[in-house]
Specification:
Strand order of the largest sheet: 1-3-2
Signal peptide: 1-29
Order of helices and strands: HEHEE
Organism: Streptomyces nigrescens
Number of helices: 2
Strand content: 25-35%
Protein name: Ricin B lectin domain-containing protein
Distance between the termini: 26 Å
Keywords: Signal
Low-confidence stretches: 15-26
């Protein structure tokens, strides 16, 4: 039960990031000058939390940091699953 609550919190964090990112980039036609041609905007890429693997805490933090710094993930989170082992979740 506790694990499901943590996964729900992870999903909620992803939803907040998605909504926050969309709100920051939205603009109305009144905000932009009129253009001779109409350009179509590319849809925003869909982001999802993906399970990356199980590690001891220090390895989990190191992998998460490495993935974000290399541009392979936007965010990471280590979730304790017991006996000193953590699951690394990354937002991609």
């Amino acid at each position: 039960m506790k694990r499901m609550a943590r996964l729900g919190a992870i999903a909620a964090t992803g939803a907040v990031l998605l909504v926050g990112g969309a709100a920051a980039t939205s603009a109305t036609a009144a905000d932009r000058p009129a253009a001779a041609t109409t350009a179509t905007a590319k849809p925003a890429p869909l982001l999802a939390w993906q399970r990356y693997g199980n590690f001891p805490y220090s390895s989990c933090v190191n992998w998460g940091t490495t993935l974000v710094n290399s541009g392979n993930a936007l965010a990471w989170q280590c979730v304790h699953i017991g006996s000193g082992i953590y699951t690394l979740w990354v937002l991609r």
